[in-house]
Amino acid sequence: MKEMITIRCMNDGGKPYQVEAGSTLSEICQIVKPRLKGEPIVAHVNNRVVGLPARIYNNVDVRYLDVTHPSGKRTYIRSLFFVMRLALERLYPETSEFVMEAPVSGGYYCDLKLDHRVNDDDIDAIKNEMERIIEADLPFLRVKCPTEDAIKVFEKEGMMSKVKLLNTYNSLYTTYFTLDGFPDFYYGALVEHTGQLHLFDLMRMDHGVLLRVPDSDNPTQLRPLVKQEKMFEVFRTHREWQDIIGLRTIGDLNDINSKGHATDLINVSEALQEKKVCHIAEEIANRPQVRLVLIAGPSSSGKTTFSRRLSVQMAACGIWPVTISMDDYFVDRELTPRDEKGDYDFESVDALNLPLMQEQLQALFNGEEVELPRYNFLTGKSEKSGNRIKLNRRSVIVMEGIHALNPKLTESISDLLKYKVYVSALTTILLDNHNYIPTTDNRLLRRIVRDHKYRNYSAYDTIHRWASVRAGENKWIFPFQENADAMFNSALLFELACLRDQALALLEMVPENVTEHAEAVRLRKFLHYIRPIQVEQIPPMSLLREFLGGSIFRI
Question: What's the gap between Cα 51 and its chain centre?
């Protein structure tokens, strides 16, 4: 008699289904038939991400996911990377390699290492070969073996970034995948077979290709193409600098750390950031008409420390920075706009008293004295502060906040008076050449550590709020980032090694019985590839101190 197990399908409110023990998640999917916007491509099993070929032998909870879910989107994109890699291997077997460089312009830029400059014929050939691979409906096969055997496989293929990562990982066994006999390593699940990758596109970009993927909100359409030339330039210049010092991947970072050069790396990275801060301050000084510096960026990008350091450098250039808090311009709580659920939308630009802000800024620029408001967050009321200010000839106002680059914020003020800065942790270090590290992961890890240290929030609390935070960023911040006069990358090459131990301890406390556990497990798995660096080596002026504690600035 066949052994039966109970599967609770969480797509269907936890409805139980009896299935044969040892059935794959794909076979179980045909029984439970979950209703999703798109095709199921991966699953959460007891709140852990698991590929559909996996066999289930015990009673479990299962939630099937499509590309509209973050776990499904990552699975789809990783699988497309592998298909591209196989297409390149078939077309250019002696000269091909690609490096997943940066998420930009609504897609993913990959630098193609061919023996000639990439042209339109190359793009057409790669796309056609990818389509042939997808039409062939080839299976992605999972291989688990001793790590030393995996290292030999990738040494044979010349994939040295993977060799270096695995050599510094210290894991007994390693899992990698094959596609039509060709191996590759990814630190997450892949789809079951190539036929599930029904939608993608390629565009020539710089020295490589932009891989376009389905839109998470509408999986039948490609993600909208958005020009991000300034953003791409930031990624490109950081990559060039990393090439010079020989630090592109986590394997490189681990190697530097194990050889005792972590302090040198910290000092050089901090110096590079300070050089950029100085450059921005000098640009402001060279524009004598500028009276207002606006600083925006997403959550945990380090805007506060950046604004403090920029103010110091502005003063060194002979400019007197005057800080004004955007939060003090909130309207009275009952006047706050509401979102589609009827809740107060505190992230809306209309939650600010824009007429008052613009009136006071213009008065200050005209040489008048004004009394700044103060917002009482306990009562939800705007109050008089008693703080009266007046600008002198060399004064420049510094304001930072999520709406700082939104044209509506200062629409009545001449652009000649404004200098706009976009700050974000644009993570440029890779896990290996085919596994990029999402900038959102970098910021989420910062926030997890900071929220615990300063707000007494658990990692569960922070992860639970993260989707809402990201939705606000997509609406109020990212559409305006290319308006910036300067972009500042707040990510530090060494920072993940410094965040590692504190973040791991907090992530391990996320309980298994919540959906946030899947994200905690994914982040923990990623962090285990990184060798830790002691936080005591970080200088007190470091932007990272905003999250780890010990900053010289009052945060």
Answer: 23
Is-contact 288 526, C-beta < 8 A?
no
Residues 285 and 416 placed together within one structural domain of the fold: yes
pLDDT in tens, 45-89: 999 999 999 999 999 999 999 999 999 999 999 999 999 999 999
Task: Tell whether 554 is covered by a domain.
Answer: no
Q: How many helices (H) and strands (E) does the chain have?
A: 15, 21
Residue 156 burial (CB count, 10 A): 10
Find out whether 434 and 185 touch, Cβ atoms under 8 Å. yes
Q: What's the domain range around 141?
A: 71-226
Regarding whether 98 and 20 lie in a shared domain, the answer is no
- The CB density around residue 83, as the number of other CB atoms within 10 Å, is 25
More confident residue, 344 or 17: 17
What digits encode the pLDDT tens for the residues 334-363? 999 988 888 888 889 999 999 999 999 999
Whether residue 553 is contained in a domain is answered as: no
Sheet with 42-45, side-by-side order of all strands: 15-20, 4-9, 60-65, 42-45, 49-50
* 82 occurs within a structural domain: yes
Q: Are 447 and 473 in contact (CB under 8 A)?
A: no
Helix or strand run (H / E) with residue 276: helix 262-285
Q: In the beta sheet, which residues pair with residue 373?
A: 384
Q: How many domains are there within the chain?
A: 4
pTM of the model: 0.93
Q: Is residue 124 part of a domain?
A: yes
pLDDT band at 240 (very low <50, low <70, confident <90, very high): confident
Whether residue 424 is found in the same domain as residue 536: yes
Q: Say if CB 20 and CB 72 are below 8 A apart.
A: no
3-state class (DSSP) for residue 126: helix
Q: What are phi and psi of 41, to 5 degrees?
A: -130, -10
Q: What percent of the chain has pLDDT over 90?
A: 83
CB atoms within 10 A of CB 311: 21
Whether residue 417 sits in one domain with residue 314: yes
Answer whether residue 1 shows pLDDT above 70. no
Under 8 Å between Cβ of 253 and 247:
yes
- In the chain, what is the straight-line distance between the N-terminal and C-terminal CA atoms, in Å? 66
Question: Cβ(520)–Cβ(444) under 8 Å?
Answer: no
Write down the pLDDT at residue 203: 94
